[in-house]
Amino acid sequence: MKILYYAAVAFILVQFSFAGSAAVMTFRLGTDGSAANDVIFAFGKNITEPELNYTVSGEVRNVEVFTGAESLPVEVAKSEDASTIRIRLNKPADAIRISYVTDNVIFQSDSAFIFLSDVSLNASNISIRVILPAGYGITGDYMPAGGSVLTDGKRISVLWEMENAGAPVTVIVKFSPVGKSDFAALAAIMFAALAAFLYVYYRKKTREEFLRGFSGDEKKTVEYLATKKVGLQKDLEAEFKFSRAKATRITSKLEGMGLIRKQRYGRTNKLFWQKK
Questions:
Q1: Using one digit for the tens of pLDDT, what is the confidence trace for 98-157?
Q2: What confidence score (pLDDT) does residue 6 get?
Q3: Is the peptide bond before 144 cis (omega within 30 degrees of 0)?
Q4: Which segment of 3-7, 221-225, 255-259 scores lowest on mean pLDDT?
Q5: Which residues have C-beta within 8 Å of that of residue 185, sequence separation ≥ 6?
Q6: Mean pLDDT across the chain
Q7: Which range is least confidently modeled, 15-29, 159-173, 195-209?
Q8: Closest C-alpha among 115, 124, 91, 140 to residue 26
Q9: What domains can be seen in the chain, in order of their start residue?
Q10: Burial class (CB within 10 angstroms; exposed 0-12, middle 13-18, buried 19+) of 98
Q11: Upper half-sphere CA count for residue 214 (Cβ side, 13 Å)
C-alpha cells in the first residue's frame, strides 16, 4: 500500500498558550496501528483558567489527566473528525499531564510503516519523542530534520528539541522490522558512539581538574610540553616571552612533580614530557 494518508494525518492542537511554558510530547507506537500518547505541560506559573481544551483528530480512548498525583475531571467532546479533551481545573496548577491512546495513526507503505502527525503545542520550549515498537528500526529519513536517534537497548526512538515552534510541526517517522542481528548491530553502534562521547567528556573533565592547581603561566607550559613531548627551554621562553628565571622556576616545579625530565643541552635545557 502506498502513502495516500496525508489527509488522514493525526492532528494535535492545544487551545491554550502561556509565555514561558514547556511541553514534552511522547508517542509510544504500537504494532496494531495505535499510539499511546503522553504530553506534559509545565506552565512556569500557577494558572487559574477553569477549563483547558486539547484537540486531537479522530477518536481517543483511555484518557487520563493529572496535575501532580491528582486526577482531573475531563470530558471528551467528539465531532465528525476530531476529539476535544476538555480539562477542568479544580484549583490553580503549574503543570498537567495528559495521557490517551489514538488508533489508526500508523499506516503501511510496501514493507515499511509510517507514523505521521501534525503537532501544535503552543509552548515556548517543546520536546517531541517518537518511540518505535520493540524490534523495529528507522527506515530512511524522518521529519523534522535534526532529530536525535536514541535507544535503550530494546526500543529505538527519535527525539526533537525545539524553541518557539509557532507553526504546527509535522512529524514523520518511517520504520520497519529488523532482525535480531541488525538490531544488535545498531545498538552496538549507538553504544560505541555513546562510549566515545563519554570518553571525550570525562577526559576533558579530568584534564580540567588536573590543570586546576596550576597558575596561568604554568598551565601554558604544561599544555605546551604535553603537546610537543620534547622541547627546548629556550623555545619555551620565546613562545610565551618568559624570562629565563621564570622558565627555570616553572620547569623545576614540573620536574619536582614528575611531569617532565630536564636534561642539559648546551646553554639551555631539553625538556621531556613524562606524564602518560
A1: 999 988 888 877 778 888 887 777 777 888 999 999 888 888 778 888 888 998 888 999
A2: 30
A3: yes
A4: 3-7
A5: none
A6: 79
A7: 195-209
A8: 115
A9: 6-178 (2.60.40.1730), 216-273 (1.10.10.10)
A10: buried
A11: 19
Nearest to 154 by CA among 136, 138, 134: 134
How far is the C-alpha of 189 from the C-alpha of 180, rounded, in Å? 14
Distance (Å, whole) CA 150 – CA 157: 5
Which residue, among 100, 109, 118, 108, has the nearest Cα to 35 in the 3D structure?
A: 100
Do 123 and 23 meet the contact criterion of CB atoms below 8 Å apart?
yes
The residue among 153, 239, 229, 216 whose CA lies nearest residue 189 is: 153
Q: Residue 123 is which amino acid?
A: A
- Please identify which residue in the block is written with the cell numbers 541488525: 182
Task: List the grid coordinates of 9.
Answer: 494525518
The residues near 101 (Cβ < 8 Å, ≥ 6 apart) are: 34, 35, 36, 37, 60, 61, 62
- pTM of the shown model: 0.60
Residue 187 main-chain phi, psi, to 5 deg: -60, -40
Residue entry with cell 579530568: 206
Bridge partners for 83 per DSSP: 56, 78
d(CA 221, CA 247) in angstroms, rounded, equals 9
Task: Give 201's pLDDT tier (boundaries 50, 70, 90).
Answer: low
Whether residue 214 is predicted with pLDDT greater than 80 in this model: the reply is no
What's the CA gap between 264 and 262, in Å, rounded?
Answer: 7
Q: How many CB atoms lie within 10 A of CB 225?
A: 21
Residue position matching grid coordinates 520536546: 127
What phi, psi does 180 have (nearest 5°)?
A: -60, -40
| pLDDT of 117 | 82
Measured in residues, the chain has a length of 276
